[in-house]
Amino acid sequence: MEKPINNRAWLLVAPVFLIVAFSAIVPIMTVVNYSVQDTFGNNQFFWNGLGWFQELLDPSTELGGRFFAALWRNLAFSAIILAIEVPLGILVALSMPREGWKVAATLVVMALPLLIPWNVVGTIWQVFARADIGLLGYGLNWLGIDYNYTGDTLSAWITIVVMDVWHWTSLVALLCYAGLKSIPDAYYQAARIDGASRWAIFTTIQLPKMKRVLLIAVLLRFMDSFMIYTEPFVLTGGGPGNATTFLSIDLVKLALGQFDLGKAAAMSLVYNLIVLAVCWVFYTVMTHAGQDYDGNRRPQEETPA
Amino acid sequence: MASITLDHLAHAYRPDPRGPQDYQLKEINHVWRQGGAYALLGPSGCGKTTLLNIISGLVTPTTGRILFDGRDVTHLPTEARNIAQVFQFPVVYDTMTVRENLAFPLKNRHVPRADIVRRVEEIASRLDLSAVLDRKAQNLTADAKQKISLGRGLVRSDVAAILFDEPLTVIDPHLKWQLRSSLKELHRALDLTMIYVTHDQTEALTFADTVVVMHDGSVVQTGSPEELFLRPAHTFVGHFIGSPGMNVLPAEVRGRTAYIEGIAIALPSAYPALPPGARIELGVRPEFAELTRAGTGVPVKVRRIDDLGRTRIARIEIAGHAAAATVPEGLSIEGDAAGLKLEPGQIHIYADGARVAGEGGA
Q: Which of B78, B169, B171 to mutate: most A Cβ within 10 Å?
């Protein structure tokens, strides 16, 4: 078949190109530009080649050291919250009501934490966990537990993790709930006839059917926690010391605190590449899972009995 | 192995049924013989799936009892009844192989491993699944999946009855025949009670020895395919079974004659017991109504003639009422006037939909 060629079609593409150029390409190129130069202020720039990148990726330098420290810290944080939020979310979804007025009530309650601005979430927990006036902090100390998130690393980490779990488990639960609701009744009936135990129903029916939404949930939660900024910034400001300084907090310290534009630009590009790489891995896994699903379309998903 | 008795069974989905209109399933008394092949036939929404779910224990009836071999199982849960069910859409456990799927009900019941292996092999060979035993069930075709769901019922040696809920809905037409005949073979080989729910008369009539026709929540007729065809107990059965369905025409009966808008039709017997005030109808299947030349038999108007290949069916009007009739070979109709000859023994009289037996018949 012959494709019609008409140069006026470019006019249709041009607006998109312009928008993308100003929203993405130009800002990113500015960062690339900074990342290969050094400046001592006065708008004077000196060529530095790949110097910042070499320094950044070498853990023995000051810059590389703090970058890798923040990176590991951030990965540990993501791993911890995923390990808690995913099983907890599944558990919550399994225990949510499946019909009646309770469904709407539960959904509203579940959605509440998701609707609170991140800054406010940080503030809520900042006040709530304070050892002198906060209900949680004061209560813990009253019980004899030594708890102070501004001074103690462990307390700070626990507070941030609990805050994130409080804030985001709902999202995982709601996604899992959607996955569970899409399972036709016949599966449960067949399982009952086959004499399956509650655990067998979970592992053989519910978990496989939730695979796709779980992948999406893990992706969303990983990316979000990997890029977390607002809540820990409001809660601990990255402290005590650097104990909760995650990548984005470190980046802001570097760029706006120290005004090391070159280093910060190099760091944000590497940061960005990591995020893109993880996204790509997830995307590949997800489309493969999707092929299993759609390559052999199962009618029971389309027509509830 | 069991016979299943439905004893004054009725079901309403709302918790406080007041009148008969609240019942999705009106009172039913029926015995499913051990080893019988039954079809439960009726249009969508007539309550047949509800009845099936009551037998399998997925639904508890509002009133009445279910007995398996005389033992009351009304309140027993599904897993405690020796019942297997095949659903409209194939249910397989995606993550398991075909072998694991078939072994699943036995594993859950803690059957010894050696028995499981033997049983699974046996059933797989019966169902022609031996070649795919180690493949993931998820990637198989719909008919293979449906065989797996059936197999999960068959592997259990304690199964008394297998219930089918429109199992061929998602199967390709050319495979339907195949699957249906293997079902029949299995039925003969295994001496199991099978209850097959469908809205497709061909499926019901080819599968079952006994067809139970349901309409609007109640059983309107139970009988062999032949009985349903020759003596429909209800105008609904006449309509629903047969293609095209039975002609049902409003009539008046006096002595041994029926009058359709004044046109007289001789009846084989008299109907002295017709309830007064009832809606009287005359029913005759198109197979027993033959078109003749104009001027003979009952005068009719021919609308069109459908050539079905082996037979020709005429769409006609008798005194303004639409009907169908067979066109004998060699008959050609000029214009739209024709006659109609009815086979006397095959004319039925219905009062308010129910068949009335004639007296003094030939």
A: B78
Total domains in the fold of chain A: 1
- Residue ranges of domains in chain B: 4-234, 243-356
Inter-chain touch B85–A187, beta carbons under 8 Å: no
Q: Which residues of B touch A296 (CB under 8 A)?
A: 138-139
Backbone dihedral region of A241: left (phi > 0), alpha (psi from -120 to 50 degrees) or beta? left
| Residue A288 maps to a domain | yes
What DSSP state is assigned to residue A148?
-
**Which residue has better confidence, B160 or A270?**
A270
Instruction: Check for a shared fold between B4-234 and B243-356.
Output: no
With residue A266 as reference, give the H or E element that holds it. helix A261-294
Task: Give CA–CA dist B129/B137, Å, rounded.
Answer: 11
Cβ-nearest to B79 among A187, A193, A303? A193
CA dist A253 and A239 (Å) reads: 12
Q: Which position has the higher pLDDT, B323 or B360?
A: B323
Judged against a pLDDT cut of 70, whether residue A171 lies above it is answered with yes
Q: How is domain B243-356 classified at the architecture level of CATH?
A: Beta Barrel (2.40)
Could you tell me which of B118, B116, B57 has the C-alpha nearest to residue B82?
Answer: B57
Residues B235-247, mean pLDDT to the nearest whole number: 87
Residues of B with CB under 8 A from a CB of A: 53, 56, 58, 77-79, 83-85, 87-91, 93-96, 104-105, 108-109, 138-139, 142, 149, 152-153, 170
Categorize the per-residue pLDDT at A293 as very low, low, confident or very high, splitting at 50, 70 and 90: very low
CB contact under 8 A, B104 and A299: no
pLDDT of B361 above 60: no
Does residue A107 sit within a domain? Answer: yes
- Longest Cα–Cα distance of chain A, Å, equals 80
> Per CATH, is B4-234 categorized as 3.90.1150.200?
no
Residue A168 has pLDDT above 90, yes or no: yes
Q: Is A114 part of a structural domain of the chain?
A: yes
We report the CATH number of the domain holding residue A154 as: 1.10.3720.10
Is A17 within the bounds of a domain?
no
Suggest the residue from A193, A201, A300 to mutate for an interface test with chain B (most B CBs closer than 10 A): A193
Chain A interface residues facing chain B, Cβ-Cβ under 8 Å?
184, 186-187, 189-190, 192-197, 200, 204-205, 208-209, 292, 296, 298-300, 303, 305
| Backbone Cα Rg of chain A | 24
- Contact residues on chain B for A298, CB-CB shorter than 8 A: 89
A77 is in which domain, residue-wise? Answer: 72-301
What average pLDDT does this structure show over A125-154? 87
Query: So what's the pLDDT on residue A273?
Result: 92
In the prediction, which pLDDT does A255 show?
Answer: 84
Q: Residues A35, A265: contact at Cβ < 8 Å?
A: yes
User: pLDDT tens digit string along B285-322?
Assistant: 988 988 888 878 888 888 888 888 888 888 988 888 88
For A295, nearest residue in chain B (alpha carbons): B139
Q: What is the percent of chain B where pLDDT is above 90?
A: 1
User: Is it the case that residue A299 has pLDDT exceeding 50?
Assistant: no
Which residues on chain B are in Cβ contact (under 8 Å) with A183? none
Backbone dihedral angles phi then psi of residue A289, each to the nearest 5 degrees: -60, -35
